[in-house]
Write a structure and sequence with these properties.
Layout lengths: L19 E3 L15 H19 L3 H10 L1 H15 L6 H10 L6 E5 L5 H5 L3 E6 L7 E3 L12 E7 L7 H11 E12 L6 H10 L2 E7 L5 E8 L16 E3 L3
Parallel strand pairs: 1-9, 2-3, 2-5, 3-4, 5-6
Antiparallel strand pairs: 6-8, 7-8
Helix pairs in contact: 1-3, 2-3
Length: 250
């Protein structure tokens, strides 16, 4: 997952380092009251930034190993993530839930990088929910480059702010494997991660997916819908780097 809140900066890469910088983790102001001191909140925010950067800048198998050995870190990350959710102008999870409400209940869905499996909890379809750690009984813990589904199982695959590993194209290849022919792939991702969206669509075509719709009107994230073609993915030859989401220090 990635997170943000609305701000007025036109350029999200403020420091010019090529990263998809995001507004800083919100720790409140001096008037905020709570059980934790502001100093403690700042420390938690700093740790969240480190975990977030770790997920974006290494391969998913390393993240899976880290959280398998220290699952509390995953829960800590998602607590920080939830802190940010309230600040979003729109939550893309809600967009996908609304999309599924208009689809037949007989469809089989895969949610790759599901967090707390909110889509599964609210959708009328059968949803297979995958993430690095199972935070509840609806989640299957795994590296989403290798999910425990048979070939051609899914009608719809969803990546909601979850193309986080440097090997994210392996996630796309896995989605291709488990989707039925002409099955739909839905992606929501932070807009600032894309250096050239058309080049990304070309990479997706080489991965066996045809673009059907693209929504780029939201300031913070984009929504793409692809359909699985009969073409085999050309994983070995596809090159497209997504910028990591790095939080701005306040």
């Amino acid at each position: 997952d990635g997170s943000w809140y609305e701000d007025d900066d036109e350029d999200d890469d403020e420091d010019g380092d090529g990263d998809g910088d995001l507004p800083g983790y919100d720790v409140g102001d001096d008037s905020d009251e709570g059980e934790l001191s502001k100093e403690h909140q700042i420390l938690k925010a700093a740790h969240f930034r480190i975990l977030n950067e770790t997920l974006y800048t290494q391969k998913s198998d390393k993240a899976h190993k880290l959280f398998r050995e220290e699952p509390d870190l995953f829960f800590e990350y998602h607590e920080g993530f939830k802190t940010q959710v309230a600040l979003w102008p729109t939550n893309p999870v809600d967009v996908f839930i609304e999309m599924l409400s208009k689809k037949p209940p007989s469809l089989i869905v895969g949610d790759f990088g599901c967090g707390e499996a909110a889509i599964s909890a609210r959708a009328k379809q059968k949803v297979h929910s995958f993430d690095l750690v199972a935070v509840n009984k609806n989640v299957t813990a795994c590296d989403i480059a290798h999910v425990p589904l048979r070939n051609g199982t899914l009608d719809i695959a969803i990546f909601c702010l979850s193309l986080m590993g440097t090997n994210y194209l392996d996630f796309i290849q896995e989605a291709n494997r488990v989707l039925k022919l002409h099955g739909e792939l839905h992606i929501a991702e932070v807009k600032s991660r894309f250096s050239n969206i058309e080049h990304f669509h070309k990479a997706m075509k080489d991965m066996g997916f045809d673009l059907r719709s693209a929504e780029e009107g939201n300031k913070m994230f984009v929504l793409f819908r692809y359909v699985k073609s009969a073409r085999n993915p050309k994983r070995a030859s596809v090159r497209y780097e997504l910028k990591p989401c790095i939080y701005k220090r306040r």
